[in-house]
Design brief:
The protein is α/β, with parallel strands linked by helices. It has two domains: about 200 residues, Rossmann fold (3-Layer(aba) Sandwich), CATH 3.40.50; about 150 residues, Rossmann fold (3-Layer(aba) Sandwich). The strands form three sheets. Strands 5-4-3-6-7-8-9 form a seven-stranded parallel beta sheet, sandwiched between helices. β3, α1 and β4 form a beta-alpha-beta unit.
Length: about 400
């Protein structure tokens, strides 16, 4: 069966003049989305190579939200992700201006391509712009990582998640908790628990990282003898009090026997340069440029503790079996906290220090498997193909 642009279903072979199958425009723009899209693109390619019906024609659209080479182009170079057909070059800016510029340009592309699905990922401005442009053109939206909630409406990411879910026809949830979140909001149609594509990516690229990453030797690090930290969320970077608490804790905790490695997001670097905050005196807090996904897995896998405000890295810490301290007051990945592998510390220096001292002595054993079995990408492809049961509902293999 196929879903046409008017929202009607057609049996295979009768899709309105499109013998090649289903056209998908995948919208990406921020670093984690490149990784997620890589896994779905690989599943689409495998689907086509195996001769499965219907065929899928995927068009990759890069908004340019992340335009720094280490945040964007290096992913296409090193991970064999296919180059985007469209690169909108929007860049950074205020949320309204950025989202508006994306909306205008995405709408132009969609009007030209007339896809059967627009596939969006996560919770960025690119996500919302892609979903909004598609919905206004009556093009069905599929949302990967649907149903996540931190219940903090001060976070732009939370607003993007909620609005995108409301605009989506196919809601692709990574966990049972995310399905339940949608149920609480009255969203039950088109909802599918597919697992987490980031776990797919970790399984696919983890071995490559072990074989190819040289980041530890380049930085002179030993396994388990350093901590990894990332800070990029607006709630932290735009609040000098919170930023001071976080980096002040790094100064207190980092030592010769356990340096802190901080791949610094461009936004955070810009804020730090403008500030007069009193930290940065500890030489064992080592600020480095952002690294690509392969090297990031290498750093995560061998760290003693990970401290981050990134949602994706919270999960990757669990995948690698490394304790995580989240530098936020809440998380959308609540199951990592419930499992004991993640601790919320906020941005208070004393709280971060005390949480670290507690976490560093823990023996957590083997991490639980919370995000499926590494088949989320294939399940997403089945949803996009319209694999149905006898009642006309989507079914997953």
């Amino acid at each position: 069966m196929f879903l046409d642009k008017k929202g009607a279903w057609h049996l295979f072979g009768t899709f309105s003049g499109k013998d090649l199958g289903i056209k998908i425009v995948s919208v990406v723009g921020a670093r984690p989305q490149f990784v997620k899209a890589a896994m779905v693109s690989l599943a689409i390619a495998r689907h086509n190579e195996e001769g499965c019906a219907p065929g899928l024609d995927e068009i990759l659209l890069h908004t340019g939200q992340h335009y720094d080479r280490n945040m964007s182009q290096v992913f296409f170079d090193r991970m064999s992700i296919k180059e985007p057909r469209y690169n909108l070059g929007v860049g950074s800016g205020p949320h309204g201006a950025m989202t508006g510029a994306m909306l205008i340009k995405i709408e132009t592309v969609l009007t030209e391509e007339l896809p059967d699905w627009v596939l969006v990922y996560g919770d960025t401005n690119s996500t919302l712009a892609g979903a909004l442009a598609a919905a206004k053109l009556q093009i069905p939206v599929a949302h990967v990582e649907s149903g996540l909630r931190s219940y903090n409406r001060k976070m732009p990411e939370e607003l993007n998640r909620v609005l995108t879910d409301r605009l989506s026809r196919c809601l692709l949830c990574p966990t049972r908790a995310s399905v339940k979140n949608l149920e609480k909001e009255g969203i039950v149609q088109g909802v599918h628990e597919v697992g987490d594509v980031m776990y797919d990516a970790f399984l696919a690229f983890g071995q490559i990282a072990r074989e190819r990453s040289t980041i530890l030797s380049e930085l002179g690090l030993s396994e388990g003898a350093y901590c990894l930290a990332t800070v990029h969320r607006q709630e932290n970077t735009d609040d000098l009090r919170r930023l001071s608490g976080i980096f002040g804790a790094f100064d207190v905790l980092a030592g010769e026997d356990c340096p802190f490695i901080v791949p610094l997001h461009p936004r955070t670097r810009k804020t730090l340069k403008k500030s007069t905050l009193d930290f940065g005196k500890n030489p064992h807090v080592r600020i480095i440029d952002p690294v690509d996904y392969i090297d990031m897995i290498g750093l995560e896998t061998n760290a003693r503790v990970i401290l981050t405000d990134s949602g994706g890295i919270q999960k990757e810490a669990l995948f690698t079996g490394v304790p995580c301290i989240t530098l936020r007051d809440e998380t959308e990945w609540v199951e990592t906290v419930d499992a004991g592998w993640n601790r919320l510390a906020g941005a208070n220096q004393e709280t971060i220090v005390s949480t670290f001292e507690e976490v560093v002595s823990l023996d957590l054993g083997a991490p639980p498997r919370l995000y499926g079995g590494g088949e989320a990408s294939q399940r997403i492809v089945k949803c996009l193909c319209g694999d149905f049961d006898e009642n006309g509902d989507w079914k997953l293999g």
